[in-house]
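Revision sheet: structure tokens.
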Amino acid sequence: MRKENIIIISPSFYPDKIGIANYNYLTAKFFSNNKHRVHVVTAMPYYPEWKIKKPYDKAPFYLKETIGKGIIVYRTKMYVPTKPTTVKRIFQVLHFLFFSLKHIPSLPIKSKVLVVAPYTINILLGLLLKWFKKCKIWCHVQDFEFDLGIQNFKLGFLSQSLYFLEKILLKKCDKVSTISQSMKKKLYLKTSIKGYYFPNFIDLGSYKNSFTPHSYYLDSTKPNLLYSGNIGEKQDWAFFIRFCRFNIEKFNFTIVGDGPKLKWIKKQLNKQKNVQFYRLVKSSDLPRLLRSFDAHLLFQKNNILDSVMPSKLLGMMASKKPCFVKGNKESEIKKIIRASESGIFFDDNNIEKITESIIEYLANKKAIEKKKIVTENFLKENFSQKKVLLDFKKSINNI
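Predicted:
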């Protein structure tokens, strides 16, 4: 006997490979495998290239398809700006919201609706389902997009209006959750509804198989450092570029990814012989890629207090290779890196000091081996895919 209906509302979904899309897909797959009827309201895949992928670029404006074991997906051809700006992003959000209204009549009654933010405004779709189809709304905040927009862009008088709208929408939900303890504290400032901790997760089993080095790995006497993921606004690419130039004789750098900043970064580093660029790999090949390199880099902007723990960090840690991360000293990432003993966190822009610390860390092979065990146990206790999703299933069934 199949269990109750689950509806996921988010513009990010399979076959997009990274970030929120991947977690939405794995969550949908988990519920489907556990005999729930799963429906997904989403957009055509476009991330991180910011371009609708083939063959969906030729698909009709609305598309219904079935993925995996009966996951019913309703897609809308959402507007996707090639160069995202504040105005274009707002239009994109509203475009998805308005045209996704068409799917409401097709969705089942008395469902549990998981609205994944960004975008918080999609709670309005959940409210329609609540009012007309007796559904319950769970808003899961992967990112506070209003906070990020106000930090990155000059929104002026719009800031207070956005925060006011956000509070109203969150208070209309039956349950709210987020992916980090820092973000959970933020929720207390935005809604009186008790927040639930629903962290991102990782399949640790996929990192245990034997492997041969990935073809992206460069056989060299110099350490090979990897960045893999979205090439967007949160990362401190100006610092990354300076770091690559400063260390032309000390490290090889490999950048695997796509995003709005890629062309600019390639232009800045096109003469750097120690820097290589590659396209994203399939999800199934990601563990092998991450395990092949000597260490991982993640440089975020120091002036942004990012309370999100980037999804890419879990893969970096699961690879059992050292993680060298830069960001705000009050961030969630700093706490995770130190608690897991998975690498070094830097909160300044002293390139010479960071370089020396990385060289010294990589030279101590015995210490690295000991810390691998601590990191693996930390991930098992806190971010195991099976544990996180089973706990979430119990909670969403109870609303």
